[in-house]
């Protein structure tokens, strides 16, 4: 089993969700996060005082899938989230040792 | 016999002015970081609570009692103690305003003046110390200064020296309210010192929509403040109303223009600040200048205050929410501007320098402004240091970093604190501290 984690631009969330639904993904988790990469932050001015805001808001999407689906999920996210600009985000895949569905106690691929 | 029209307008104005203090709480509250929004608002509500009681007990009497020794410095605190003897209708046959309407109207001036000071000491003052300060400051600074400026001589009553002997013009409180609060804010900012990380960390406003709502409420309430100061529903009130409108509009334009040229952006915080700068400047002058004069006063106030708020970084004092840059500078400008732009055609009927009146009114304005500034600044320094040395005014470094809301009030303003430098760990740290205290208590 694989965990696919994607950090994308917030306004791309709906596109990514729709793309994942189209390839049959049954669930995902979303959180609002902040950070910086090559995009860096921006400057804000309050009563003439300039503040460098280092962290840019992003959305983190997490999907747990079977080993076979991982590549398709990554491709779908990348295609849906891309604008070609700096700051589009990243997608990475990690291996998961175990997964349990809380309601039934099912384990492994059955729990997906 | 009570004049019902006047009385209705003054009671309405008093309620409008009262609303300015919760409005100020929103204006200030939005400007601080998320971890201290509640404390910021509580300083205003604390002033509402305490000053309303002190005003009834002896504040009104110090401000509007017969001048002690006829010196024009302060009224007799015992004459109307507890508003003694003021409940009967004492209006004459010709008609008039019940004294209680005047008592109520002036009470809300005292409250907002004290609340204004709190902006200079955001994030770092112990609440109990603030309340003690508020009571002492109102008693020995505001109530006497209100006597100087607002107490006019009556048939067998002697009033204050600025109003009667100096005859400086201050219609609604450029000196007594704004210069007074601004100078006190500067003194307290010096007593308490800078916030941890001032000038290094980002201390940006956590909720600008709150600031905009607050500025709107202040503007709304200010019509009572200025137009109500005629103490009658008459032509003077109407002139003051229009001047209050147009000076404020011009001040927003002035502030935004400076921002656009200096920073490249016209900001919402700039617009909200321009509102207050314009209102402050027109407060003393709203019955003394023409509507064109009001536009000039407002536009210059907006531009001047937009530049003045940068002073604290250059001079190194942490007047957190710019009480000095807006209220002291705006109050000085508005008060002194009467000496230039006053016109005999306006209700106050005095020509300033630009209208051929020479410098006679100008020097009176300067002396009145300087006297209030010096008196307030020096006494506030004394009160502030006395509280700092005895009960302690400033929070400990730990508590300040954690956030005053959780530490002092055991509350947090929002369920979710943001990551952006607003102290997202504050609730947890506060909880840990509370647990530690409980443990200590159990052990004891």
Q: Short description, anyone?
A:
Chain A: Belongs to the P(II) protein family. With 112 residues, chain A is α+β, with helices and mostly antiparallel strands. Chain A has helices spanning 13-22, 70-81; strands at 2-8, 29-35, 42-46, 49-53, 56-65, 89-95.
Q: What fold name stands as the CATH topology of the largest domain in chain B?
A: Ammonium transporter fold
CATH topology of chain A: Alpha-Beta Plaits
CATH architecture of the largest domain in chain B: Orthogonal Bundle
Number of helices of chain A: 2
Total domain modules of chain B: 2
Q: How much helix, percentage-wise, in residues of chain A? A: 10-25%
What's the level 1 CATH class of the largest domain in chain B? Mainly Alpha
- Write the H/E string of chain B, N to C: HHHHHHHHHHHHHHHH
Could you tell me the strand content of chain A as a percent range?
35-45%
Shape label of chain B: globular
Report the top-level CATH class of chain A: Alpha Beta
Q: What oligomeric state do these chains adopt?
A: heterodimer
Topology:
The complex is a heterodimer of chains A (112) and B (444).
Chain A: E1 2-8, H1 13-22, E2 29-35, E3 42-46, E4 49-53, E5 56-65, H2 70-81, E6 89-95
Antiparallel strand pairs in A: 1-5, 1-6, 2-5, 3-4
Helix pairs in contact in A: 1-2
Chain B: H1 4-31, H2 37-64, H3 99-117, H4 127-150, H5 161-166, H6 174-192, H7 208-227, H8 235-263, H9 268-282, H10 291-308, H11 311-315, H12 323-341, H13 360-390, H14 397-402, H15 404-409, H16 426-443
What does it look like?
Chain A: Homotrimer. The complex is a heterodimer of chains A (112) and B (444). Chain A has 112 residues and is of the alpha+beta class. Chain A has a single domain (2-111), classed as Alpha-Beta Plaits (2-Layer Sandwich). Chain A is built from two helices and six strands. Chain A starts with a strand and ends in a 17-residue tail after the last strand. The model of chain A has no long low-confidence stretch (mean pLDDT 92). Chain B has 444 residues and is mainly α. Chain B has two domains: 4-390, Ammonium transporter AmtB like domains (Ammonium transporter fold); 398-443. Helices cover 66% and strands 0% of the residues of chain B. Chain B is built from 16 helices and no strands. Chain B has helices at residues 4-31, 37-64, 99-117, 127-150, 161-166, 174-192, 208-227, 235-263, 268-282, 291-308, 311-315, 323-341, 360-390, 397-402, 404-409, 426-443. Chain B is globular and about 60 Å long. The model of chain B is unreliable at 417-432 (pLDDT under 50).
């Amino acid at each position: 089993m694989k965990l696919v984690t994607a950090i994308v631009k917030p306004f791309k969330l709906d596109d990514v969700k729709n793309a994942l639904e189209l390839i049959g993904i049954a669930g995902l988790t979303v959180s609002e996060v902040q950070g910086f990469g090559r995009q860096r932050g921006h400057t804000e001015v309050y009563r003439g005082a300039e503040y460098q805001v280092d962290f840019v808001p992003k959305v983190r999407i997490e999907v747990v899938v079977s080993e076979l689906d991982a590549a398709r999920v990554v491709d779908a996210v990348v295609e849906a989230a891309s604008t070609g600009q700096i700051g589009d985000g990243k997608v990475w895949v990690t291996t998961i040792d175990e997964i349990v569905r809380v309601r039934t106690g099912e384990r492994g691929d059955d729990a997906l | 016999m009570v004049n019902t029209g006047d009385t209705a307008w003054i009671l309405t104005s008093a309620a409008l002015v009262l609303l300015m203090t919760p409005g100020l709480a929103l204006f200030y509250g939005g400007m601080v970081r998320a971890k201290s929004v509640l404390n910021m608002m509580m300083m205003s509500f604390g002033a509402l609570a305490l000053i309303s009681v002190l005003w009834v007990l002896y504040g009104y009497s110090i401000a509007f009692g017969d001048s002690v020794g006829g010196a024009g410095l302060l009224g007799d605190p015992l004459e109307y103690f507890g508003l003694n003897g003021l409940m009967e209708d004492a209006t004459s046959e010709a008609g008039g305003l019940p004294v209680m309407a005047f008592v109520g109207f002036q009470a809300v001036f005292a409250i907002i003046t004290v609340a204004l000071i709190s902006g200079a000491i955001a994030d770092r003052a112990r609440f109990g110390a603030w309340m003690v300060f508020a009571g002492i400051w109102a008693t020995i600074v505001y109530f006497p200064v209100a006597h100087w400026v607002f107490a006019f001589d009556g048939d067998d009553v002697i009033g204050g020296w600025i109003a009667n002997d100096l005859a400086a013009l201050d219609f609604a409180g450029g000196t007594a309210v704004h210069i007074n609060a601004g100078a006190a804010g500067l003194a307290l900012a010096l007593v308490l010192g800078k916030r941890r990380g001032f000038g290094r960390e980002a201390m940006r406003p956590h909720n600008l929509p709150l600031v905009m709502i607050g500025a709107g409420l202040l503007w709304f309430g200010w019509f009572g403040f200025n137009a109500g100061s005629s103490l009658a529903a008459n032509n003077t009130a109407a002139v003051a109303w229009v001047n209050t409108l147009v000076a404020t509009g011009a001040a927003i334009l002035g502030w935004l223009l400076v921002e656009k040229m200096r920073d490249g952006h016209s900001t919402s915080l700039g617009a909200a600040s321009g509102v207050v700068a314009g209102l402050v400047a027109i407060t003393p002058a709203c019955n003394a200048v023409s509507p064109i004069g009001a536009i000039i006063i407002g536009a210059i106030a907006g531009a001047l205050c937009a530049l003045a708020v940068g002073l604290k970084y250059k001079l190194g004092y942490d007047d957190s929410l710019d009480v000095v840059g807006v209220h002291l500078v705006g109050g000085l400008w508005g008060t002194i501007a009467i000496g230039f732009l006053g016109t005999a055609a306006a209700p106050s009927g005095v020509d300033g320098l630009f209208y051929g009146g020479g410098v006679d009114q100008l020097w009176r304005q300067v002396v009145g402004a300087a006297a209030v500034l010096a008196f307030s600044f020096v006494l506030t320094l004394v009160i502030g240091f006395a509280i700092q040395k005895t009960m302690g005014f400033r929070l400990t470094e730990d508590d300040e970093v954690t956030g005053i809301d959780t530490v002092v009030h055991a509350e947090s303003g929002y369920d979710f604190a943001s990551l952006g430098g607003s102290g997202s760990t504050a609730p947890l740290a506060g909880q840990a501290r509370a647990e530690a205290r409980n443990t200590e208590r159990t052990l004891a």
